[in-house]
Amino acid sequence: MFSMPQGFNVILILIFITGCFSIFCFNSDIRKAKLTFFPYRIKRNNEITRIISHIFIHADFQHFAFNMLSVYFLGSFLEDQWRHEFGPEGGAVHILVLYLLGGIFATGYIYVKQQDNIMYQSLGASGAVSAVIFAAILWYPTMELGLFFIPVPIPAFIFGPLYLLIEYLAMKRGTSGIAHEAHIGGALFGILYVTLLEPTKLITFIELIL
């Protein structure tokens, strides 16, 4: 019977692949343009691969580092939890599906909104990362997380709603050049995924908030 190697880590593999693609595109706008999420071209030219290719490229090293550090810490934690819960193979599959589908789901609202906008393009793993972060928050809501403007760590069940509120306000302002809709979409997918896996997690989360 086939079994995953003990050191096998899906999150690290995703980070490695993302790093390779991102570095490949850092100094080439032509390469980058072929992989971005471009709703206008997806709709008119049927360039479906852009729906997933944008997850693996970043604007610059800072953008890449921020996303990958975030997904490394919480993603590795969640992968360990799910390997224990669902077995090595099951845990690996769940974290992979969460990441990839989270990144795709995060672009749904943006596609509907921007499909006729020839000027709109976006890139980065923020939606996928947000899905992993919120899945981890729902799975273990009492862990402590930090916000860059709050020096003291706060419980995840407080961090989550606060983060979503900040993203929503930033989205309504609409002047940052950041796809806040993708962050929110990814977060909602992460919450949905964990709820489907283990409905009691959502109930516990709500009870902690209330």
Report what the structure shows.
The chain has 10 helices and 2 strands. With about 210 residues, it is mostly helical. It has a single domain, classed as Rhomboid-like (Rhomboid-like fold, Up-down Bundle), CATH 1.20.1540.10. The chain has a two-stranded antiparallel ribbon. A hairpin with a 2-residue loop joins strand 1 and strand 2. Helix 1 crosses helix 5, helix 5 crosses helix 7 and helix 7 runs parallel beside helix 9. The radius of gyration is 17 Å and the shape is globular. The N terminus is likely disordered.
Structure described in brief:
By secondary structure, this protein is mostly helical.
Give the helices and strands, then pairings:
Layout: H1 10-26, H2 29-33, H3 39-45, H4 50-53, H5 61-105, H6 108-114, H7 126-139, E1 144-147, E2 150-155, H8 156-173, H9 180-197, H10 199-209
Antiparallel strand pairs: 1-2
Helix pairs in contact: 1-5, 5-7, 5-9, 7-9, 8-9, 9-10
What is the CATH topology assignment?
Rhomboid-like fold
Class inferred from helices and paired strands: mainly alpha
Number of domains: 1
Arithmetic mean of pLDDT: 92
> What series of H and E elements makes up the topology?
HHHHHHHEEHHH
Low-pLDDT residue spans: 1-5
Helix content: 55-70%
Strand elements, count: 2
Q: Tell me the major beta sheet.
A: 2 strands, antiparallel
**Shape summary:** globular
CATH class: Mainly Alpha
